[in-house]
Amino acid sequence: MSATTEKITYTATPEQVAAMHDAFDKALAEVRDELGATYPMIVAGKERTASDTFTVVAPADHEMVIGRFQHGTRQDVDDAVAAARAAFPDWSGRPWQERVAIMKRAAEIIRERKFRLAALLILEAGKNRAESIGEVEEGADLIQTYAEQMEQNHGFQRRLESLDPAERNRSVLRPFGVWAVLAPFNFPHALSAGMSSGALVAGNTVVYKPASLTPLAGYELARAYADAGVPAGVFNYVTGSGSDVGEALALHPDVDGVIFTGSKEVGLELFKEVPTAYPKPVITEMGGKNPTIVTRNADLDKAVEGVVRSAFGYSGQKCSACSRVYIEQPVYDEFMRRLTERTQRVKVGDPAERDTYVGPVIDERAVQRFESAVASAEGGTIRAGGERLTGADFDHGTFVAPTVIDGLPVDHPLFKNEIFLPFIVAAPVDSLDQAIALANDTEYGLTAGIFTEDRSEIERFFDQIEAGVVYANRKGGSTTGAWPGCQSFAGWKASGSTGKGGLGPYYVQQFMREQSQTLVVDSDEEDFFAEEAAGE
């Protein structure tokens, strides 16, 4: 298998990663030559500009201008929503097989462009090579997976029973209309592709707002959709601030549904504010405070590697990142010794370099949050990290050291609050029961992991942990690395609003509403439900 076809995921082996480097270097050189361009919005299939632009710089080098993007306005939002509404009848009225074919073409186009798109992610988002390519692969697989859900469910048409011999009944899931898609900075390609394609393949139209820190990934997604044959107005791309564009879009009276990935505070506000005249679907994924448990029966080599990869991948800026670890007393000292040594060996630097694992955090606000978190740990022990990195390789970017802290009380805010950084707090526990109780003692419930060679402990963990995505003995990432079709990504408690996750088998149907259809026929009349309701 060649480097261009080898699939790179977040748990790729060193051998797989090495195989793709040469092809990637060429793409990286090409995209560097494109930097600094001005990018339009796309509304009704046409490019449009605003009276003002904002500049996006690389988090690894603030002197590197990624591009200039339009400061959209409420009028742009109005026009985009109107375009999406106008495009809805044709798009939703097409046979679902046509939408599936178009979306599958989009997935293939993304795969063909994966090195280019990944190179842009390195520069714009500060991801390392494996993370960037893994994200592009995930975006394509998300689109493919959601298209296949339509096929597997026969377009979500199902024959129902009849009490009257003359009645023919079926259930049909139908699209809502126009969806607002509000994307985060940390997975600007994969989550944008996943959220939007779930809506699109179901027959909805979309107005999409990327995060202002990473809008170029969204522009490239819009181009991929257009090249795949998504009609004008079906997917609209609008950039700008949260106050001028994001709020106006989410609360727009002609928007029929909202999907958002980001902070708990914004997600809860949307969940409360979006329904106005009548309830509307609001799908939110709102982060986590994800624990890993290490029992006395753990393989410590697996546990250390799994925690480090999960906590420090993409500089801890994943809603699934491990941020707290509970270790049983008999193995606590040895685990912490190994964890500290492994953390100190993590390569931090330019994410474009082949051997970098941890790149920059996204911006100066993230650095300030890091420094505040370190300051709040007074009384604890900083085992590794704890400082902003400076010097020739770091002075033009936003780099912080991967950090491990213990010695804090288990009710300290650092065990409770999401900080979205390469930052772990650890504590000893007396038993698995205590560890599970502490792991559950949070408002979040996204991911969780355990390391133990005792099968009964794994069963207890799976049964009692309050999280939507759980892993046992995952060396590739103790709480991270979910993949489309393999691990559903569902948030419990304050981590999500629907209890049905992205990447999983129940995702697309969230963008649809049920209609029960009854037809009364004469005994010799052809039943036109029969052919379409193949999902009985």
Describe the structure.
The chain has helices at residues 14-32, 74-93, 96-112, 114-125, 129-152, 190-201, 215-228, 242-250, 264-273, 300-312, 329-344, 364-376, 432-440, 455-464, 529-532; strands spanning 37-39, 41-43, 46-48, 53-58, 61-70, 157-160, 167-175, 178-182, 205-209, 235-237, 257-261, 282-285, 290-294, 322-328, 381-384, 403-406, 423-429, 444-445, 447-451, 469-472, 492-493, 512-520. The mean pLDDT is 94. 38% of the residues lie in helices and 20% in strands. The longest helix has 24 residues, at 129-152. The chain folds into two domains: 18-286 and 496-514, Aldehyde Dehydrogenase, Chain A, domain 1, CATH 3.40.605.10; 290-487, Aldehyde Dehydrogenase, Chain A, domain 2 (3-Layer(aba) Sandwich). It contains 15 helices and 22 strands. By secondary structure, the protein is an alpha/beta fold. The strands form six sheets. A seven-stranded mixed sheet has the order 15-16-17-14-13-19-20, sandwiched between helices. It has a five-stranded parallel sheet with strand order 10-9-8-11-12, with helices on both faces. The chain has a three-stranded mixed sheet with strand order 1-5-4, with helices on one face. Strand 9 (205-209), helix 7 and strand 10 (235-237) form a beta-alpha-beta unit. Helix 1 crosses helix 4, helix 3 (96-112) runs antiparallel to helix 5 (129-152) and helix 3 (96-112) packs across helix 7 (215-228).
Short description:
The protein is an alpha/beta fold. The protein has 15 helices and 22 strands.
Question: Which characteristics define this entry?
Answer:
5-stranded parallel β-sheet, Aldehyde Dehydrogenase, Chain A, domain 2, alpha/beta, 2 domains, Aldehyde Dehydrogenase, Chain A, domain 1, 536 residues
